[in-house]
Design brief:
Layout lengths: L7 E4 L2 E5 L10 E4 L2 H9 L6 H18 L3 H12 L6 H16 L5 H31 L5 E6 L14 H10 L3 E7 L6 H12 L4 E4 L4 H6 L5 E4 L3 E2 L5 E4 L2 H11 L3 E4 L23 H4 E2 L2 E2 L12 E4 L6 E4 L2 E3 L3 H9 L5
The chain binds the ligand CSC[C@H]1O[C@H](OP(=O)(O)O)[C@H](O)[C@@H]1O.
């Protein structure tokens, strides 16, 4: 996808989002004029991907301030936004950053306070694009001159405010003229890989193939994959990573066959407050996502469903975690503590 496609645009007190529920069949946009619109857009995955969710939520907080001059109403609106999806830490991180701007400037005239909140939301969006390009540059160093890469879910411009995390690394390696080939798995049940990553790879003209999720294991066993690059939604202080369902299984297979396995995340996706992955809330989504495919029923009516949207990969299965502050290698806990102290790795 060329960079003219913006995942989210904010203008005239309106957040415009490319509707990721129906890409690539249709390129259409949804406008959000209230914080309730933004909450729905996040919850229904019109916008998805940890950094993109954070950026959208930041504008949702600004819209809440526009709608709610009363402090208690505003705080209630922010709480409502924070509950839209539980796993990606970027949602809470962005809301908390906006709330800090609000509290710090609460005594300013209302118009000035609103301007400062909008400026903070713009900064969060702009910083994310810069962060993605920086981590992509750092991450491209782990991509051999000739490599076949497996990626999972969607971690491109659509999952962020622009450019991408793991797919950002892949694009950077490609534009660096590395001889890469990408296998993108479909990523059931929402098909972020088949719908979104395939679209971004084709737009970028990166040599690639789409595969069923369950084909990855055989490709890894048969030595067809040199490297796995994927995203993350919340990283615990010991390096455990919550990411799209299926990540854990891929990590086990890669560990068994000695394939490098990297999560690519901005530091804003690290939750320094939780000691390990057991504390990460895992979102469970509607049964229909599994019983239906693009609205067509495939499972018998009334069949019970377990539909976790994420799983947790233990740090022991990771080769490294690529960030804009450097690559976190084992010992993960100690190196994450260095990041928390503001060091660059
Ligand atoms: C760049 S973070 C992308 C991250 O978000 C995806 O989840 P979802 O599509 O449900 O928001 C997936 O976990 C990706 O790795």
């Amino acid at each position: 996808m060329d960079e003219s496609f913006a995942t989210l645009i904010f203008k005239d007190d309106t957040l415009t989002l490319i509707d990721q529920r129906i890409l690539p069949a249709e390129v259409s946009y949804v406008t959000c004029k209230t914080f309730e619109d933004v909450e729905f857009a996040i919850r229904d995955m019109i916008v998805r991907g940890a950094p993109a969710i954070g950026s959208a939520a930041a504008y949702g907080v600004y819209l809440a301030a526009l709608q709610c001059p009363d402090d208690a109403d505003f705080k209630k609106a922010c709480k409502f936004l924070s509950l839209a999806r539980p796993t990606a830490v970027n949602l809470g991180w962005a809301i908390n950053r906006m709330l800090a701007t609000y509290e710090h400037n609460i005594k300013q005239p209302r118009a000035e306070l609103l301007n400062l909140l909008l400026a903070e939301a713009d900064s969060i969006r702009e910083e994310d694009i810069k962060t993605n390009k920086l981590m992509s540059r750092i991450g491209a160093a782990v991509v051999p001159q000739k490599a076949t890469i497996l990626t999972h879910c969607n971690t491109g411009a659509l999952a962020t405010a622009g450019w991408g995390t793991a797919l950002g690394v892949i694009k950077t390696a490609f534009y660096d003229k590395k001889d890469i080939f990408v296998y993108a798995d479909e990523t059931r049940p929402r098909f972020q890989g088949a719908r979104l990553t395939a679209w971004e790879l084709m737009e970028a003209k990166i040599p690639s193939k789409l595969i069923p999720d369950s084909a990855a294991a055989t490709l890894i066993r048969d030595g067809k994959i040199d490297l796995v690059l994927l995203g993350g939604d919340r990283v615990a202080a010991n390096g455990d990573v919550a990411n799209k369902l299926g990540t854990f299984a891929l990590s086990v297979i890669c560990k068994a066959y000695g394939i490098p396995f990297y999560s690519v995340v901005p530091v804003s996706t690290i939750d320094f407050s939780i000691p390990d992955g057991s504390a990460i809330p895992i979102e469970e989504r509607d049964a229909e996502e599994v019983t239906h495919v693009q609205g067509v029923q495939v499972a018998p009516k009334g069949m019970d469903v377990y539909n976790p949207a994420f799983d947790v990969t233990p740090h022991q299965n990771l080769t490294g975690i690529i960030t804009e502050k450097g690559i976190i290698y084992p010992p993960f806990k100690e190196n994450i503590e260095r990041l928390e102290r503001g060091e660059t790795l």
